[in-house]
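Researcher: I'm preparing a figure for a lab meeting and need a structural model of a single chain. I don't have an experimental structure, so a prediction will have to do for now. The sequence is pasted below. Please return the structure as tokens so I can convert it later.
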Amino acid sequence: MRSGVLMGAQQQVEAVDAYIDLLSNGTAEQIVGLYADGATVEDPIGAPIRRTREELIEFYSIITNLDSREATLKWAKVAGDTAVFEFTLVTGTAGMSFEITPIDIMVFDDAGKIVSMRAVWEQSDLKQL
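Model: Understood. Here is the structure written out token by token.
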């Protein structure tokens, strides 16, 4: 039983690492590939919940279509089926750069796919560099 819990935690850590890497280097489709069918994204908390694969791809395309982007993981905690982590995302477009440091809460299924992601941040957290 204990090794199953550890393997689940390791899967979640690997999924978080992949998510951060894909925010920097991947396509919207690759990011959405980390999600289970029927997964939801609420980013930020209080925003309309995205429920379809098409909505998720549209959402992540906003980031992946920028001129530059770099995500850096600050810390992560895993417990049960949930990972909570903070990262910094620096983006650039039209000669301007922006930075945001959200905290994401992800819930995973038994296959290590994300079933829910909620991002904790507000508009005042978005800084122009």
